[in-house]
Amino acid sequence: MFRWRCFRTAAVPLCHAAMLCLAAVLCFAAIDSEAGEFRSRPPHVHGSATLDIALQDGRLDIEFESPAINVVGFEHEPATAEERAALSQANRTFDGGDPLFVSPAGAACKQTSVTRTPITYEHDGDDEKPNAPHANYEVAYRFTCKHPDKLDWIEVQLFEVTRGMQKITATVVTPGIQRQTDLTAGHTRVSLLPD
Question: Which pLDDT does position 122 carry in this prediction?
C-alpha cells in the first residue's frame, strides 16, 4: 500500500531516491558480510598463530588459532602411534587454559570453559585421502574474572608448549582499548591497559 501512495504523489523522485538508497545499503551490507566472512580466517603461516582476546563485564574470551604443525608437529591425520600420542598430548595441554594464560592474581580469573575445534584435514579431489597442507588447531577459552579492573595484562605461555612458533599476533578488544600486538618467545605479555 505504501508503494502505491509513493508513486501517486508528487514526491516520486524523492521516493525513488529513498528506494535506491535502501537497495544500495542492503547490497553493501551483503558485500561487507561476505567480505567479513572471507577475511575472518587468518593466513596459514607456519611458525605464526593468532590470539583474539576480548574482555567485557568480567568475562574474558580468548581464541587461539594456529597451523597444526606448530602444535602437534604435522598437518595430516595421525598415522602412527607417535603422531596419535602427540595429538593427545596437545589436546590435554590446550584443554587447560589457566597455565597457558597467566593473569594477575588480584583479577581472580578462573577458566569456565574450553572448546577445541576438531582439526579438519583437507582431501585430494576424488580419492578422499588426507592431504592437509593447511590443517589448523583452534581452541576457544572463557574465563570469569571477579575483579576485571585488576586485569592489567595476560602472560601468554604458548611458546613453551608449541613447536617452532615464532610469532603470535594478539588482537585485544576491551571497553577501553582495541589493539594488535605481536608476541615472540622474548615478549609474551599482552597489556590490557590503555596507552
Answer: 67
